[in-house]
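Sorry, any thoughts here?
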Amino acid sequence: MRQSSARARRDQALMVVIQDVYEANYSCHGQWLMGKAINRGYADQFGPVARCTVERLMRQLGIDGIRRRSKRPKTAAARADECPDDLVEREFAAPAPNCLWVVGIPRKREVLPPMFRRLLGGCIRRSSSMSSTERSSVGR
């Protein structure tokens, strides 16, 4: 029968150490902390142990550390009955179906940046007060 390889013998010894370190640390260490602990405490016995080796052996042993939980939101939304009434009395109703809600667009060229003039294009009314260069830049 064939002898086991050096890696297999080292893995067997490391599995015992991993199990001991895992139980000594309240079953909390994941592969990263486990690798740090083994390299700190058993470096003279095994030499440097790679994190992927620790990960592979922990998977074979069927152990893993505590997973970090996703952060919970700091504030909770108020219930509907706790919300105050709308003191401004806003109305969010369109005058007719499929109507476009338009906000006030400044008509002065200095106020409206060129990017918005290009985006709005035909939405801005071309008035007689606009020069021909302004009309050509608005239509593009």
